[in-house]
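Problem statement: downstream parser choked on a complex file, so we are re-checking the raw output for the (2R)-2,3-dihydroxypropyl phosphate run. The parser issue turned out to be on our end (a line-ending mismatch), but while we're here, posting the original submission so the record is complete.
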Amino acid sequence: MKGTFFKNQWFLCLSVLFMWIKTYLIYKLGFDLQIDSFLQEIILLMNPLSFILPLFGIGLLLKGNKQRLFLLIANLVLTIILISNTIFYGFYIDFITIPVLFQASNMGDMGSSVKELFNPLFIALLLDLAVLAWLARTHKGPAEKTASGTIKKYYAVSAGMFLFNLALAEAEQPKLLTHSFDREVLVKSIGLFQFHVYDTISQTVNVSAKAFADEDSLSTIENYTKADYSKPDKNKFGLAKGRNVIFVTLESTQSFVLHEKVNGKEITPFLNNLVKKSYNFDHFYQQTEQGKTSDSEFIVGNSLYPSLSGAVFFTKSDNTFQTMYKSLKQHHYYTSVFHANHKRFWNRDVMYKSFGIDRFFDVDEFTVAPETSTNWGLKDKEFLEQSASKLKNLPQPYYSNFITLTNHFPFEIDDKDKLIDEYDSSSDLLNRYVTTVRYEDEALKHFISKLKKEGQYENSMIVFMGDHYGISEAHNKALGEFLGKDEITPYDTVQLQRVPFIIHIPGVTDQQPETVSDVGGQIDVRPTLLHLLGIETKGDIQFGNDLFSNDRTPFAVLRNGSFITNDYIYTKNTCYRQKTGEPAENQNECKPFGEKANQELSLSDKILNGDLLRFYEQ
Ligand code: GP9
Ligand code: MN
């Protein structure tokens, strides 16, 4: 029987075999998956089969050329999925999700580096298709329908394969499907194609969550956030009461460049000096995901976690939000955003309205000339200068967010704007990055003197925050060279998610600067700033805590489920000691925080997917 099956269905078997090999090849050569054990390697090797077998098995229901055609098309479609993921991965070190496909602007960056992303492997991936097509032309498909008994047996084997794969994966990583926020872990365990099915199902479930949500859904969440609230420090509460807030979002700026030099010259001389006169948070983590800058805006404004896939700015634009801007308004603040890009880009015009932001100064409000522009448009120096002169006309007190752009991928600026040498490493991107960060730093210095001239400095609270990483894991080798490390471990990757967060209150922090080394993240910005302004956040639904509060647990969760405390870093299934980077002897030490991390991410997702804030009265 077995013999006849292979003899009759040799084309199907060959198609399965080729697809299996190709998928495994891409796993090994197209992605950089961290494999820690032999069992993980076995799971990785076997998991393509639990998808390919049932899919290609449909061919058993077809006769003759129809079967051949079906198998060729299925092979082609899966190959396209493999190639697209490899290209996307090469750029974002991530896998494609459904919302990202509908977010064309997110892919904008990739265009400029398509050449770099082409992989000769892609040609090899198409070779089997040519062979199979030739075989299909020269050998006709089975003339008879396959016996139903054979089909049943085939599917019994496929189902067995699927369950075996799932059981092994769950054994390796308990609660895999319900609590995995890390796409790499999912792909490694259940497989790439299965991940796409999983993603499609979870997107559908998310959409239906809104229809079934009611007021009661919010009460468990309110109980959690109320219990988690931390009281402000009496000495800090209201310290900047009534002041204007100037919040500067630093594009792609990571902390690893602070206090570093290239050929004897500091990369961020202005910021290095400013931290000595400010509240400086040196263990502050970015928590964005696929929505990049827009995610950072979302986190700061809402103190909620962003979506695991796609950008909230696109996927949840119909939701009701109870933002920091709305609280500020109740305290007579006028809120605005300055950003020299088109207002519709990233759906900002729609989102800002629903956030309750009073005014959006988009690119049309600025004078932009070729000599003052670079890749992404108006250079930061001109952008900040023109913005500063608009401030005096705003109603006071104001809260304004300035989103910089020059330090954006691909990190290119005119030679005359290069104030330091490029770095010398194996990555051109990192080499250029230090020069654009240096430029940005100069633009900030210029901004502060302009604010002083415009009379907008003394009575303000000035905040600088990095939005997300600029140098991805694709450049780990060069990052290792920069940091003087042989290799970048998953622990280092988490540490690299630190971004600057600096609060400068003229007349206050220059007298008594402070460095806060407790762990925190973007989610904590909202309560921290509001409390400094003397605005209580006790009743707010928020997952962040005031970074100055004495009863706060130092803690930050990244959107992929990795988390950091003052003592530990948990990532990629390993609990590390925060101070040394060594794995903890007792891996269970991270556990209690892991539960908190999962709970926060899940509750925050519930709010977004169920649009629960429409039931909340502020
Ligand atoms: C562009 C700004 C930067 O308007 O959002 O883009 P991002 O950093 O999100 O790619
Ligand atoms: Mn950005």
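For whoever reads this later: The chain has a mean pLDDT of 94.
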